[in-house]
Amino acid sequence: MTAPTSQRPVMLTGGAGYIGSHTCVALHEAGHPVVVVDDFSNSHPRVLDRIETISGVRPSLERGDVLDTAWLCSVFERHDPAAVIHLAGVKAVGESVANPIKYFDINIGGSISLMKAMQAHRQQVGRLSPLVFSSTATVYGEPSRVPITEDFPLTFESPYAHTKLVVEQMLGAVGRSESSWKVAVLRYFNPVGAHRSGLIGEDPSGTPNNLMPFVSQVAVGRQAHLNVFGDDYPTIDGTGVRDYLHVMDLAEGHVRATQALMDGCDSFTVNLGTGIGHSVLQVVKAFEAACGKPIPYRIAARRPGDVAAYFADPGKAHKLLGWQARRDLGQMCSDAWAWQSLNPKGYREQE
Ligand code: UFG
After folding, report:
1. Digit-coded pLDDT (tens) for 116-143
2. Does 121 fall in a domain?
3. CATH number of residue 174's parent domain
4. Catalytic residue ranges
5. What is the pTM of this model?
6. Ligand 1 center to residue 210 CA distance, Å?
7. Closest to 313 (Cα-Cα) out of 267, 278, 276, 268
């Protein structure tokens, strides 16, 4: 027996991760039940308690590996999802250079496994769930100019970006093969911050690679100082410029994309960013204001592979989905600080 459409959940692969946990809260806010599919390889089961505290609803959990297609097929049978948001994957650019096979396996293999399970489920129930795919702005490589629109040339400079581009292309081919595949590709810029409650947030294992979690760890005393990678870029103050986006705005973008597909919209690809670039030193200043402490930093060499300035033209997402980022850099920093100061060791606090 299939559950009535309004009660069919949204399936969230990687739903216990940083983007997944915030998307789960945003889906709950919009009235969607959620089934989280996660193996906790880069997340913590405690996140589900936190989601329940925020939402008053606990998502269903299916613990397992998306690469296990037979198991994934059984998850589809149990839940018959109204839509699927595919976030499960690995995302560290540096690690992908050192260990590309892991990235090809999990990111490309995981997406193939998911598509197979969706196709098998369609044979049983006679319809295909719409699919939202988590992609990245790094598929634009080093853009010739900013802001970046979706029609810019696509390329890759790391195996990580390569995997995202390959999956985008596979989804394009699948959509062309059969019009019943409805796919939204979301190209994220730089998601930062946390839910305003401070109960969920980004919890990187080991030393953070990304700016905002590193700055947060300096503020909380887990790192002595920030290394600013280069101060001789052709930008406002010589440091790199990025389009930092509040993770709850990003989460709400997923909800809009999912609803658009469920309402019958054709497949689409959109940038999710604010359209505003901020330099590393502007982020440091904003974080100092949010946490009320100085953030010691040193100027270091440029990080290989970094580009000078990178920000979105988010106009298409606004036009198509009515979506626009609402939270500014100050809010991103104060929410990141709420999470970091309440959870200095992330979800592992009580262990
Ligand atoms: N930076 C520092 N010191 C640090 C970390 C970062 O100065 O310790 C600088 C970088 O040089 C860059 C900026 O801060 O100028 C942002 O760096 P991040 O590592 O936070 O983000 P990136 O723009 O390099 O990349 C991120 C994700 C990718 C994703 C990409 C999309 O790491 O996975 O955004 O644009 F694909």
Report:
1. 999 999 999 999 999 999 999 999 999 9
2. yes
3. 3.40.50.720
4. 160
5. 0.97
6. 5
7. 276
